[in-house]
């Protein structure tokens, strides 16, 4: 079984397939997405070198929102290391990240170009999802993107274990540039609840929908469950951009066009910040926290 592939050059012809994929799978691959393969490769090599920086430099990458900064391998998660920033839509934030890590002029240039291109692609895909539902593409204007680069140090002992536990992403959509050489990512097939391996497809990008997409779409879009399995003793890199949703005090709320007598409002309005807090405090990382913001639920 293969996850759907959406050709970004073939719109409007792909709207139906894009909507179907977001509802049935909660994920799809995009090809012809407009980000040159050279930029993907340049970014990948910059990412590798950032992890080679001395620990005291990496530690300068502090959290702007919980979990957005440097994550050092620790006892609970000895194989995993991450750097990141919030918000990739702000060139000032991107520049500050580069300055803190003392990157070279070339690396700064690559990170800046990647940031603009990947945030732009996230907005374009979100806009097309809106279009595919007849809502236009303006609803996601001003949304923020969190950015995270991941390094997995898979050891002989970790082969056969899970590198990233089963979870959904909390935001609206995630663009994942996977390791083109090392597989291991698996998504859950909604119908059978079985995991399907997502093998890397060079120069494509993977789109995953998260909890906010489910709430915003009044339950139409599937928040895909996924995990990373360790298949071999190796180093694996991935680059994730999370288009989160409305900023600050703005609330996540399904547009009125999606609500009618047959489709009553399923979720209470909530802010991203409150929702993320709820997910963390209840340790509900696989979409369960949505049940706590159901219109008919009482949050305890
Ligand atoms: O590393 C990957 O391929 C997936 C990472 C992931 O699911 C995440 O960062 O949310
Ligand atoms: Fe994820």
From TrEMBL:
Position of the signal peptide: none
Coiled-coil stretches: none
MF terms in GO: dioxygenase activity; metal ion binding
Gene3D superfamilies: B-lactam Antibiotic, Isopenicillin N Synthase, Chain
UniProt entry tagged with the keyword DNA-binding: no
Domain Fe2OG dioxygenase: 142-246
InterPro entries referenced in this protein's UniProt entry, alphabetically: DIOX_N (IPR026992), IPNS-like_FE2OG_OXY (IPR044861), IPNS-like_sf (IPR027443), Iron_ascorbate_oxido_reductase (IPR050231), Oxoglu/Fe-dep_dioxygenase_dom (IPR005123)
Keywords associated with the record: Dioxygenase, Iron, Metal-binding, Oxidoreductase
One protein family per Pfam: 2OG-FeII_Oxy
Keyword Iron: yes
Family affiliation: Belongs to the iron/ascorbate-dependent oxidoreductase family.
Protein's name in the database: 2-oxoglutarate-dependent dioxygenase DAO
